[in-house]
Amino acid sequence: MAEARRVNRMWRNMNAKIAAVPMILTTLVVFVGGTAWTVLYSFTDSKLLPRERFVGFDQYERLWSNSRWLTSIENLMIYGVLSLVFTIVIGFLLAVAMDQKIRFEDTFRTIMLYPFALSFIVTGLVWQWILNPEFGIQSIVRGLGWESFTFNPLNNPDLVLYGLLIAGLWQGTGFVMCLMLAGLRGIDEDIWKAARVDGIPTWKTYIQIILPMMRPVFITTLVIVAAGIIKLYDLVVAQTSGGPGNASQVPAMYVYDYMFQAQNLGQGFAASTMMLLTVLIVLIPWAYLEFGGKKHG
Hints:
Helices cover 73% and strands 0% of the residues. By secondary structure, the chain is an all-alpha fold. The chain has a single domain, classed as MetI-like (MetI-like fold). The longest helix has 32 residues, at 67-98. InterPro entries: ABC_transporter_permease, MetI-like, MetI-like_sf.
């Protein structure tokens, strides 16, 4: 009897399972196969074309002794930490404000989410113009009478990352707001009623009750934002092209330049493998918290 039920479960929704086969095969061949191929050839001295001349960890030693790579890692860490913190905090605060059943909520939500519909190239170009000292914010403020006002972050090596951060927050905060708002709307209204009956202040309700209940939403948001940060490329190319100097270099630019401009595939593969390792460092704890933790619980 148990065997019959198991067979029935196997054949249930068979059409959907068959339809998923091409997607599964494509994923295995393109993603898994491509990833394995990249990691394998990162141990070769491939130049313009791949070649099976293995050199061990030479490419990785050369990678971590390259000042440009080290600078790009440092830049990504600074940008990544600030972007994670501000995107999640601002997105949550906006979601809290939207959750107060304000008038024209749909309009405001659309306005806040609209930048996310733009590509990073468009966002980068828009903010390059806005931050341009000749006709951007600096020019407008000086035209209002503050002649000594200076705001030119994209041409200042010490401030260029913050110029990128402004554009990144403008694009990504609305999406995080929608995720947080969905999480807030999923909380039972009885919890709010019980908190009001007990006389718990609203701010304490959020901190002690709502935030712990939204843990899965925060973890998912953290993973999505972190994955986007690791592969940051379009925004930097559109706004600064990695300048001034190497002040806004990021790992994805290093990979692209070595693979397609310096014609050093081995070095590009090594750098992309390190980026893959970084993504795994983010995804594995998330997968454990989401699935392993529940299983153990």
